Every structure is written in C-alpha cells, then in structure tokens.
Amino acid sequence: MKAIYCEGCGVELQSENKEKAGYLPKSAWNNEHVICQRCFRLKHYNEVQDVEFTDDDYLRMIHQISDTNCLVVKIVDIFDFNGSFISGLQRLTGSNPIILIGNKVDLLPKSTNRNKLIHWMKKTASDNGLKVQDVFLISAAKGQGFQEVEQAIEEKRKGQDVYVVGCTNVGKSTFINQLINRSSGVEDAITTSYFPGTTLGFIQIPLDDHSSLFDTPGVVNRSQIVHYVTDKDLKLITPKKEIKPKVYQLQDKQTLFFGGFARLDFERGMKQSFIGYFSNQLMIHRTKLVQADEFYEKHVGELLQPPSAKSLELLPPLVKQTVKIPHERTDIVIPGLGWVMIPEGGITITVHVPKGIHISIRKALI
C-alpha cells in the first residue's frame, strides 16, 4: 500500500502502534484531511506527545537536502538569533543557494534600525560560515514583509523546489501557513505550536506542476532554554507583543534576576544603565550581590517565577561566566530568553545561566 503522510507534521501514518509517531485510528483513514493522533491532540487540546526521534534523526533528515537542486529558505528568530542559528547548515544543504529570513520582527521595539539589523545578520551568517544570497525581515504571525519574500523566492528558485529550514520554534510552519494562506486562502494548513519538534517529516506543498515547497523538521539546539521548561513557562518567556525595554540603574555589587532562569551580577565598574529586552511577562528583580545566593534559594519558583516548580525539575543548575564588557554599547544574549544591553561598558559582570546554555556577546543591535 502506498505510504500516506500526516498533513500536519509530515510523518508517515500508521495504525499498528499507538505509541509510535504517525498513529491514526483505522476509522479516520477516509477523512478528507488526515492528520495523526498527535497532531489532532496538539491542535484541539494543546497537548503534546513525546516521539521516538532523536536530535540526530532531525539532522539526518535535513542532510537529504544536499542531494537535491533547490532553493533553501533559512529562518531564524530575530529575538534569539544566536540560539536559532544552525551551525554547519552549509554542510547539511550542499551548494544550494540560501535566503536568510529573520522572523518575529514585530517583537522588536519600533526604534530598531532595520537596515543595521539586516547588515548585522549578513555579517554574522558569514562569520558562521554561511553564505546567503539575501536577507529579509518578516513577521510570520502578522504577515509583515511577505511580498518581498515571495518575489525573492520566485526569482531565486528558478523553477526548482524550495526547502524551508530552521531550528525548533523559529516559526517555520507559521511562515509556510502564511504563504499558503496568501496564495490560496487556506488557513492553518500544517500544525503549529509553541512546542519544539512539532514537524516530524518533510511536508510537501505543490508550487506548480513540477515543483514543491517543503516544510522540514526543526533542528534541535540544546543551548536554548526552551528545551528545559514546561509548556506553561514557555508561553511566559516567549514574547507575543512588541518588547518594552526595562531600564535599571545599577551600581557595582548589585544583581538582576530574570525570573529564576538567569542572573546578572554587576561586579566592578561605574554606575550605569542595564536595559533588558525580554518577554513583557518575565519578571525582573534587583537585589544586592552579597545576598543574591540566599535570595535565589529562598525565592526561586515563587517570587522568581518562571520557572514553575515543574520546570525546576527539568532545569539544569545555574553556572556562572565572568565577562569584561568593552567601552561600547554591548548586548549580553541569553539564548531562548532575551538580552541585556549595556550602553557604556567598561565594566565586569558575571552571568549565571543553566548549565549547557551558552551566552554570547555582541555589539548592541538597538
């Protein structure tokens, strides 16, 4: 019998084992639109079921692209560029041309210089070994920037297939749903959610008689906090509206807590501003450095929330990294959470993040 694939996540459908990916009751095979039980429960009840795929399985699927002639559309989360950038993508996709798209531009403050951001994205991609043909800024959720992207895809694919790739939770499926909706009026054609790993196989959408657009499984980057929190906490740390920067005037020997997920200690330097760019729902607390350890032990999961008690069971212990900040506007980026901008620099800070999460330093974007 010819294999049939879930319209929601792309996995091959089967009715033999409820515990395996792609399970569909035999009674549902004749439905007009067939989706697996996992996608059905995710779509209607917001429940997510674990699957047997490993991180390497997703990478192997993406590597199949290197054997094709196509256009690759790489999507990153502007709010978490470093955490959502796939290292080694050029090796996975071969010599195929690549367009880089920054999603969730609607979350950045309106004062953001978009030309500067595009230039930074091009340079950062190049520094990471990825040669891109063009860069675009969009909001997949709101449909911003799609006219330019549609024109670029049509011009650069030259009649060939298009593969959309990206890390988990960057908005790939939302991006494709927006394209489908704009061209055919069909809404929510494929399954989307907050949860990592929603797409389990290649989902094929015909572009014409000879070529298709493919949604691919999200590549897992374990250096993002998203993989160590419950779905409830994930919704709190994932921005939904334009970020409202929070400004704190700190003297040395003071500490900022970002919920209970991370901590920044101002070790040495002149008094200055620290500007936080995080989800508006994430609580930030200030205290004295000398009592920060005790404060964390006493209040994590309660006053310092999120994380909830359930996320605390998943979250690795906090480890620290001390950094000297140069005399220039600098961002301290915590993958999957946000960043702190330090306008003047010339100071020493210590950042505490869950073990396995790697902070990065960059010239300020805003």
UniProtKB/TrEMBL annotation:
GO molecular function: GTP binding
Stretches assigned to the CP-type G domain: 56-222
NCBIfam families membership: GTPase_YqeH (TIGR03597)
Protein name: Ribosome biogenesis GTPase YqeH
Taxonomic lineage from the root: Bacteria, Bacillati, Bacillota, Bacilli, Bacillales
